[in-house]
Amino acid sequence: MRREAIVLLLGLLWALDVGAQSPTASNEAPPDNEIPAGASIYARPKPPVRLETREGRLVRPGEEVDANDALEEILDEFAADLARLGANRVAPILLERVRVSENMNPEFAANLEARLVAAIHRAANMTVVRCYECYATHAEVEDGVWVVRRGISRKEDLQKLAKKYNAQVVLNVSLTLHTAPNSLAFDVEMVRAADSTIMFAEGYRVHPHTALLYRSADKVQSREVRLKDLEDRINERPRFHHSIHFGATVIPTSGHPEGPIWGAYTAYRFSEAFGEEREWRAGVTLAGIINPARMAGGLASATLLRRLNPENVYNINCFLGGSAGFLVTGAVGNSPMFNAQGECVLAHRITLQASLGVLVPFKSSVESTYTVGGLTPQAGMGFTW
User: Which residues lie within the region annotated Disordered (predicted)?
Assistant: First the structure.
């Protein structure tokens, strides 16, 4: 009995010793819902917002746009429309017919079909099935009459073919090349095989001059600009332009030993744009001509300019016109002045400009023996806003 009591006492002492060495509650591992010290949290990056644009532009520098680039843009736009419709509503697609206009090589239809299918696979990843019966000629006897048909001629045939190919819609494509002026027209029609209703139809066009890709059923972006411009005209909201010019001018003299007068030229012009394409600018120019040793004067003139080239974001916009005003240098040195001037806006603000004017000759003072006036060239640069 004594031996058993000793063993029990030793076991109790060992249990108390193990409990004293166990970690306290403050040293326990953190629960699962707490972040350990030194840990970092990385937020998952948000996916970029995909803009579902309804209209697009095909803009390239230069005066010409390659027809292949325009066609690729059209096919990609159509494929993007299919992706928006969704594969569960459209795919598989039964390709019935691809046609080109009479002024194009008929063999180009096969090339167009291949490029169309490739565009659909890239953008929408949909199954496109070739319809062999749609091009075939069928002959049969009906009520003792020999009947010849080509392609799909009855609703029952359409449903039978769609069931055979497991297709939901039938696609018809037509590409037309216009030559006066040169432009492309791409028309598509998608017919639901179950009830022969047209579920999607659209026409895609490429503008011959601006290379603007638009739809026949949607507004062109430039039309929205025209609409805003028309609203501004109706509401009598003008469009003003401001510009400051710096440069140098030469005023010829007659009978003076130092020759012509070289002077610094600075001007401010305030103008309003008008015309069908806002290609005209009319306004007032206030300028100063300074030569500290020989002459100082101010020039006030009315200015009229016209844009020479069609407006283009890649091209330099050039204007040509003239002005008529009056140069004031003092009690005697006042004379009319007429200028032919031109300027080019390089991008949006910086402008290179030059003018050639005729200053009616005048005497610089009552006692003077020389006259000032003649052909007056001027050149410089400016800033437009």
Answer: 22-41
The two three-digit tokens of residue 225, written as one number: 């600009």
- The string of pLDDT tens digits covering residues 309-352 is 877 666 788 999 999 999 988 766 788 999 999 999 987 889 99
Do residues 172 and 199 make contact, with C-beta atoms less than 8 angstroms apart? no
Buried b (16+ CB within 10 A) or exposed e, 127-138: bbbebeebeeee
The whole-number average pLDDT for the span 265-293 is: 90
Q: 189, 201 in Cβ contact below 8 A?
A: yes
Q: How far is 100 from 116, CA to CA, in rounded Å? A: 13
Rounded to whole angstroms, the Cα distance separating 334 from 295 reads 12
**Cα dihedral 161, 164, 170, 174 in deg (nearest 10):** -70
Least-confidence region, from 36-50, 115-129, 134-148, 230-244: 36-50
Structure tokens at 357: 């004017």
At position 115, the amino acid (one-letter code) is R
- How far the first Cα of the chain sits from its last, in Å, is 111
Cis peptide before 92 (omega within 30 of 0): yes
Least confident of 120-134, 146-160, 265-279, 369-383: 146-160
CB 357 within 8 A of CB 223: no
What are the CA-CA distances from residue 196 to residues 152, 164, 193 (Å)? 12, 16, 5
Handedness of CA 113, 115, 119, 121 (dihedral sign): positive
Which pLDDT value is given to residue 205? 81
Task: Give the Å distances, CA to CA, from 354 to 23, 269, 357, 376, 377.
Answer: 90, 14, 10, 11, 8
- Residue 55 has a pLDDT of 45
0.90 cut: is pTM over it? no
DSSP-H helix ranges across 33-147: 67-85, 87-90, 108-123
Task: Output the CA–CA distances (angstroms, integers) from residue 68 to 58, 320, 332, in the order listed.
Answer: 12, 36, 68
AA letter at 330 = G
DSSP assignment letter at 366: S
- Yes or no: say if 155 and 192 are a contact pair by the CB < 8 Å rule: no
Dist CA 124 CA 87 (whole Å) = 7
